[in-house]
Please model this.
Amino acid sequence: MNIVVLMKQVPDTEAPVEIAESNVAIDTEDTKWAINPYDEFSLEEALLIKEAKGDSKVTLVTVGPDHVAEAIRVAYAMGVDEAIHINDEIDDEVYGAVDPHTTAAIIAAALKDVPFDLIIAGQRAVDDDSYLVPALVANKLNLPIISLVTKQETTDTEINCVQSIDGGTAVVKAALPALITTQKGINEPRYPNFRAIMKAKKKKVDERELEDIGLDPENFGINGAKVKIRSMEFPPERGQGKIIEGSSPAEKAKILVNLLKEEASVI
Amino acid sequence: MNFDLTKEQTMIRKEVRKFAQKEIAPIAGELDEKEEFSSELTRKMGEIGLFGMFVSEKYDGQGMDYISYIIAVEEIARIDGSQAATIAAGNSLGIGPLYYFGSEEQKQKYLPKLCSGEALWGFGLTEPTAGSDAGGSKTTAVRDGDDWVINGSKIFITNAACDMTLGVTVQAITGTRDNGKPEYTCFIVEKDTPGFKAVPMHKKMMWRASNTAELYFDNVRVPKENMLGNQGDGFHQMLKTLDGGRLSIGSMGLGGAQGAYDLALKYAKDRKQFGQSISKFQAIAFKLADCAMEIECARNLMYKACWLRNENRPFEKEAAMAKLYCSELMGRVANHAVQIHGGYGLMKEYNVERFYRDQKLLDIGEGTSEVQRIVISRHIGC
Model:
């Protein structure tokens, strides 16, 4: 079985984030990067399928600037067989994937000559939280998509998934080829073993530019974006907590309920 | 001159840090308090490759350089001294002597199990009457036909009495040298050998989640094939092993200092007194600045010593310096860290007290601070 994993490199969630002077992007000068945590689930799930089925190949597809190479090495160390990196950086400028639409168009084009039975992507990327790229890719490739998968079983012709939905789960199946997105809980991503880290050094990355996959850079970057960020700001700092005074627990509870109704308007 | 780590070394640091934060940090306090060695956690550490790091792939080692190993120990120690001890002793004292001095047959037999983290191995050197004075040791091995018969005891032996222990290397007196001094030879003793007993030691102040043992040898008979290297090699093997061991103990000091500093800096920024973060007060800020500076110095010294070793150049003096400096530095940093935490620093909930306790071993184990000063002073011609 040929499995493709879509991966995005995002700022490490544990590292502090600063807004750039342009006010429409984050300052990436000193950013620490990591694999999008949901894509780690996708990588793990692809590797689990490969290990269970044997005779399978896991191909990683990613779009991004030079520093994505670091995330690819980690994916190789985890056990990915091949990696395709669409590098959209020239002179420190990203000229390709700047919004969900341009990103999905690039990925779809890159997948034209990659054989696949199943595409696995994270349900969303934790940096811009658009939730859109996997669905747009499925749409462009005319594939069925099952999102927020917490469990799957794959045969040679179809995939059965447990999908998390509001307040419960649904059991959904689709014919292959298909695209699924992973939800937290589907697996525990492995740690790359040190020997695999050393071996990853020798693996080659198939690096391509937009022209190499038949795309005209003129239609990408800011020209191709359908979503433009106008400004960015940090969420407001959390205010001080409130300690409820009262003579008995019952009285305090009463005051709390009142405050939740009147002040917080949550009940 | 190039201070950059390789991409692989950077990845090792990142992955070990992630592992330590996710797998060790949540249970370190509890294991310490219960004085419990965790086989489950040790196996997990083995799975990612924390054992046999500098051992060739031929014996299922990870085939990495010495700096990568030291970085891994440092990152584990940044979270927990006990687990770092399991790793440092497992590699430098358990695996090291077998790898460097063992016969091909011995290596094939033991190293794959030790490098995968399925099993642990102890290095029996210290005796009740022989600490810094190695000449005070009393354990003997006497040739009897094709066997050697070992009698004596060892103390404070890490990884030697847990359910994962496969055996120990033991140093014994096998005769008298021409100069009248005792002749030492090392032997391999598997755990089920009749007459051999390994007893866990409890009520420790530090490294409470690491396994420490007393070893008893009562007419323990091993075949001559169990000799490590040649008869009389024991003293030289011990010195070589301890030179490497010093680097791993030093990196525990370095990582522990960094860990205590991390906790202190975070607490100082969060803790408010007199209407502002206490990190804004010079009394606190200067302590943290001194810690940051000294950790930087320690890291440079430690990595230089590892680099010398990697390049096969003499590194004994630098290893002694790095061990001494990093160990004592962790003492200063942990002391500041507890002080910055105030009353909370005395409570187990805040973890710094564990760093404060764990540090003390580093002044004593694998050559006391005093012995390191002797080594250094001899190297500078005193």
Q: What stands out?
A: The first helix of chain A runs from residue 37 to 53. The mean pLDDT of chain A is 93. Helices of chain A lie at 37-53, 68-78, 100-110, 133-140, 194-200, 249-262. Chain A touches chain B at residues 70, 73-74, 77, 191-195, 197-198, 201 (CB under 8 Å).
